[in-house]
Amino acid sequence: MDILQTMNEKVVRSHCRICHGGCGVLVHVKDGKVVRIEGDPQSPISHGTLCPKGIATIQLAYHPDRLVYPLKRKGAKGEGKWERISWDEAYDLLTAKINEYKRQYGAESIVLGYGTGRDNEAFIYRFANLIGTPNVLTAGHMCYGPRVATSIITCGNLPVCDYEGNPRCVMVWGNNAIVSNPDEYKGVYLSDALAKGAKLIVVDPRFTKLADRSNLWLQLRPGTDVALAMGILQVIIEEELYDKEFVQNWVYGWKEFVVRVKEYTLKGVSEITWVPEEKIREAARLFATTKPACIQWGVAIEQSINCVDNNRILIALAAITGNLDVPGGMVFYVPPPTMNASQFGAHKLLPHEQRKKRLGGDVFRLADAFAILNPRFVWDAILTEKPYPVKMVFLISTNPVLTRANASMVYEALKKVHFLAVSDFFLTPTAELADLVLPTATWLEMDYVAEFWKRHGYVLARQKVIQVGECKSDHEMLNELGNRVGPKEYWWPTIHGALNAILAPSGLTFEEFVKKGYLRGRMEYRKYVQKGFSTPTGKVELYSTRLKEWGYDPLPQFREPPESPVSRPDLFKEYPYILITGMRPTAFFHSEHRQIPWLRELLPEPFVEIHPETAEREGIKEGDWVTIESARGRCLQRAKLTLGIDPRVIGAQHAWWFPEKIFPEHGWRDSNINLLTDNNPATCDPAMGATNLRVLLCRISPKREG
Amino acid sequence: MKMTKRLAMIIDEEICWGCDTCELACKQENNPPDGSRWIKVKTKGVQRVDGQLRLTFLPARCLQCSKPPCKEACPVKAIHQRTDGIVLVDPDACIGCKACLEACPFGVMQFNTDKGVAEKCHLCYHRIDRGERPACVDKCIGRCIHFGEVKELLTQWADRRWQFGKE
């Protein structure tokens, strides 16, 4: 292990994974206990910086409520009565259940699941593919997955802001990259780019600190991003601000694309988006004429019926302005030589006839091509047994009762499913419904070849620093279970065998890798000049041949959100505000961390952003508990009055539960915004199945007494 | 008292992202009890300034005043100032009367309810004394916390303004 000795403490170099991870850390250990987490100044990713969550990992690791051994349900489902069992007993139970359901109902009756993932994604897919189930329930239909899938069919790979290449203009689109984790990079990159004088355009319905720092803030009507991008493209095309040479040589379907863009007049776009024509023009000119430029995007635009077309149209913007794969633009990073996540996931070992059974695969074709499914189909298969019964759900690092749309349905389904196993840090509201609960390890408690699924050109060494209770990393757990369930030849005697296999192409063992700290691929720009773009036509497909093949519109289009003043004027009479959800607080990662004292102190209760005019009209005062209600459900959050939101829009937080409230419910119904969201497939993106979590209609009122 | 090499921390509020990392870095380093923060990121939220929306964060902490009112107010002389300017509360001498909390014009003196004593940011003097910088400085993603000798800081401050191309 790469250990530095300073005084009586030893210092272990590792990489954080409290969110989507990647920050370099120096873990200080004294007498076998972690006493301090410092940023690693040598990390090329985070340069010594950290965030509140990373530091608070100490309180997570040593939390008194943490699960430290496997638990088996003793009383009725969800009653909160547990019995301690050994890992061997837990593995025996899991093996017996998997074999039983596989024999009786087919492997497809077993669903593996994770949320946003704790760097365990490739292991979970591998396990699922090897037991023969095509059903892995991820967030991939509405988070990151769409960016990757859409990029691959449009331009061959995921284009990422090249902050090191010194962009002169950054357009941050629906992303609060400073507070959230935009996957490939940390906020420090964006912060440094701005410090170096990059121009900043911010597209966001909320006035964030990024908006405060911006040269131009486009406060659009939530859910109309594609229309706004059409407006920007309109100006770029009309004023001939695009890179003609690139378009001529490297764009497929330009003529058809231009015809489509011209269907959107600037005036029309302004009416749809609420953004004044002049601002759209200004943004188009600033972005197209400042080189190099990149678009910092994120998950917000993906949790929408416009998911795929929104990603496609932002790629189009970067492409036609000549910003693809150039220094400081949006680039395709070159990975270091390791096995990639897709190879490790063993997708090729899933038999074809099983693959065809993927739930909803015939509906959401793009998602299916990337082994991704829409959760609604799982809940339906449990509740109605159609198209076939789902009997077992194995959830690893996910809390869907809080984080999936239509929480009431999720709760019913998980309560009904025959056998539910959950691997997590705590007894979450989801884990409370389980038959078997496994205690998982934090990033401080595992060896791993970290982030090898990301498209940022790195793999990072994560080192085991401590052991807490009987906790095991999900990777280790799945490798051990895989050895029992089989086929054994595809698993390793120990977890280090798996890590060495991932590293094999680099010629390094895990021990050697740890000494290096990280590997980085050798970056080259403009790779397309030699190799073309990795699409069917070898070009950037603004007219998508793949989508056409699957029967979708090959050109991007704007779809009005399924619930909006325009699409549902009837509903709008009763629910007269646009509700947006999921603003990121500094303290928490989705449904996690409400039990961590240092973090909970930052934000003790959920808040909903309301414009002061709106609050006055509704009789709401700062700090009041407010009932937020949609056609499907309601919840309570505290009013935070702010000028940073349009008076017609309400901004709520997501994934709130209260670990301190009485078990087994832990107050999951109190402030859960997903009691209001919809998971009807008709409201999802037609190709990717992305769930519309972000734009609904709601009404608000002060909480009634009693 | 003659002071040589006066130390200070300055924070560029204009570019503070409000990410709260400094609060946690301090919590980890100095371990104040729940509810107490030696550095606290404050904001008035989104304001309208000259017709423009603005959002500013202010990490409030002890400014190590050159003539500390807290020191003046302490009836038992539990507060003293080092030659480098760091203002320290001696927990053994403090009687928990909170006179210093009243006296602090910035409201940053904290009260440790577990120990019954006043305490506050001391620029992590224990780190400084072993050649390190205060815990919050290098973890800041906005790089807006600056620590050093006062005169050097002021020079750097001018440079920074220029480098960042501010109007």
List key phrases describing it:
heterodimer; A: 706 residues; alpha/beta; Rossmann fold; Dimethylsulfoxide Reductase, domain 2; Barwin-like endoglucanases; 7-stranded mixed beta sheet; 6-stranded mixed beta sheet; 27 helices; 28 strands; B: 167 residues; alpha+beta; Alpha-Beta Plaits; two-stranded antiparallel ribbon; 5 helices; 8 strands
Characterize this entry briefly.
The complex is a heterodimer of chains A (706) and B (167). With 706 residues, chain A is of the alpha/beta class.
Number of domains of chain B: 1
The strands making up the biggest β-sheet of chain B line up spatially as 1-8
Poorly predicted segments of chain B: 162-167
Strand content bin of chain B: 15-25%
Helix-strand makeup class of chain B? alpha+beta
Could you characterize what this model shows?
- The complex is a heterodimer of chains A (about 700) and B (about 170).
- Chain A is of the alpha/beta class and about 700 residues long.
- Chain A has 27 helices and 28 strands.
- In chain A, strands 6-5-18-17-16-7-8 form a seven-stranded mixed sheet, with helices on one face. Chain A has a six-stranded mixed sheet with strand order 24-26-25-28-23-27.
- Chain A starts with a strand and ends with a strand.
- Chain B has about 170 residues and is of the alpha+beta class.
- Chain B has a single domain (about 5-165), classed as Alpha-Beta Plaits (2-Layer Sandwich).
- In chain B, the strands form four sheets. A two-stranded antiparallel sheet of chain B has the order 1-8. In chain B, strands 2-3 form a two-stranded antiparallel ribbon.
- In chain B, β6 and β7 (about 115-120) form a beta hairpin.
- Classes of the chains: A alpha/beta (about 700), B alpha+beta (about 170).
